[in-house]
């Protein structure tokens, strides 16, 4: 769970369009209201896409004249940006919303909003009206750009304002309140066309829509001019970006902007092209890191997940990436206990993890999502089996991670410093070019700067280093 802080000035992403001009009318009208909420607090669940959406919500609220409140309980407007990809994120979000109902008893003017992909989930809109009628405002990701208009309606309504539908285009020009000055998320596309059988994203985030390359390049040039050191390009499957060019073409253009560091996520192995691997090898600013979700090591499970690659083709791409970018940092997502997963198929996943040697892995137990094909598949794996399997997977990954990260020891690295280390106030930490977290001696002065270091050791999932 992340919280937005108001540490930065508001900037416009890219050129105005008609829709945002209409929304700005609402922003101006709300700012002029004397009895509107004065402070806000945004609570974010889920992925980087959601974190970036929260930056846009905070940007719009700041433009409306509201100021950030670090305390959730004392803010006049609290909005939960929810995630429905996993069951527990959804439960936590609804639990926190219910808790705010109690807070309202001591603060009757409190306004509560809920947004994000959970609202787009089939049946959720009806549930909100039935069980959460105390909410003032609820809207899905597809209408995020209409937040000012919806907020205005909520201010003038005594019942919940609910909006889930939306257009299929990408709206440019939303204000954004960035979390950091040295690092920025840049959304390049939205939605997904892949329909993996366990995943709800295509149903709640819609089909793929890509931004124009010109708008993305312009945004990145502005970020570069504003001192941003690193960008993270975002999309559910950036490899299938199809604005007015391909993803490798976009990377080439961004490489030429001279922004120091470029990362991206997430990639789908089936769409990882040889052209992209070539660009990775040739570019100056695209960092040597690749997040390549494998999900499972068994071909039969991959087939039933509708992933449309095989274990063999995945391993071949890992090999080609390592050939083109020696030492590349590789990370992944792994889901265990997909319906019907046998011990043998689970062992295929363990073998693959052992063979690849990832720098880190996000590991999950499959949880059924309503409306997806996997929800109705037979042979759901019992919880006690899942618990035991996830522990074996974590143990193996921890061991392999320590082993593969030793390749960095004795090598130089460049670290974008993010903050003071939590364990030692004389140290700072940040990300190296390969995506691995690095701790080094330093002070607050280093935050936001790229520091050259020599890696000296590996500690759990972190590298330690001395300054060069
Ligand atoms: S690629 Fe698959 S897992 Fe990823 S968002 Fe699309 S459907 Fe979901």
Question: What's the arrangement of secondary structure elements?
Answer:
Blueprint: E1 2-3, E2 11-12, H1 18-32, E3 39-44, H2 48-63, E4 67-68, E5 77-82, H3 87-106, E6 111-116, H4 117-120, H5 124-131, E7 137-139, H6 147-155, E8 161-163, E9 175-176, E10 183-187, E11 189-190, H7 201-205, E12 209-210, H8 213-225, E13 230-234, H9 247-257, E14 261-265, H10 274-282, E15 289-291, H11 299-304, H12 311-324, E16 329-336, H13 343-356, E17 360-365, H14 383-405, E18 412-420, E19 427-432, E20 437-441, E21 450-459, E22 462-467
Parallel strand pairs: 3-4, 3-5, 5-6, 6-7, 7-8, 10-13, 13-14, 15-16, 16-17, 20-22
Antiparallel strand pairs: 1-3, 2-9, 11-12, 18-19, 18-21, 19-20, 21-22
Helix pairs in contact: 1-6, 8-9, 13-14
Bound molecules: iron/sulfur cluster.
Residues 192, 194-196, 199, 201-202, 236-237, 268 line the site of iron/sulfur cluster (SF4).
